[in-house]
């Protein structure tokens, strides 16, 4: 790395504790450390006392993050499984990024597959209601239900993405709406 600046903050007060500046830093794989060259370290010990120390070449044991820590692989939420997405969200939160959109997608990892069960609950009453209209009526009804689910799912997802609904509610609301519709149809079905 070239033109390196490292700032250590007090986690309670967020005041500067240490500042390290160097022309360059090289990763030494054998030592598992960064070697900083041509720079200085300043320890801020209080309002009046500071400790300033220039150096030609040195290492700092507390700075042991490997180069892979600084190289973030960009993946879409659809390319990650639940654990990977959850770790990615936690990493972004720690860095101070907004993760609302990703948290909605995290909950959709379970809510969307559950719709297959809900669709079965809806399809049973439709089989009896549309059964005498032929196969095309049933196919048309199932396509209509799927389009309605996608539209309502997109609506709730966008409401969740702008943080007007908590991410779990935004992801699970379409399932809740269609579950209620399915239960209503099951209860109204003649037995």
Overall description:
By secondary structure, this protein is of the alpha+beta class. The protein has 2 domains: 2-70, no CATH class; 77-188, no CATH class. Helices cover 51% and strands 23% of the residues. The chain has 5 helices and 4 strands. The chain has a 4-stranded antiparallel beta sheet with strand order 1-2-3-4, with no helix packed on it. α2 (82-94) packs antiparallel against α3, α3 packs parallel to α5 and α4 packs antiparallel against α5 (167-188). The mean pLDDT is 87.
The major pleated sheet works out as: 4 strands, antiparallel
Taken from the alpha-carbon principal axes, the silhouette is: elongated
User: Fraction of residues in helices?
Assistant: 40-55%
Strand order of the largest sheet: 1-2-3-4
Using only CA atoms, what is the Rg?
28 Å
Round the mean pLDDT to the nearest integer and report it.
87
Order of helices and strands: EEEEHHHHH
**Could you list the spans in which at least 5 consecutive residues all have pLDDT below 50?**
none
Number of strands: 4
Given the helix and strand composition, which structural class is it?
alpha+beta
Fraction of residues in β-strands? 15-25%
The N- to C-terminal Cα distance equals 73 Å
- How many domains comprise the coordinates? 2
- By DSSP (H or I, 4+ residues per run), the number of helices equals 5
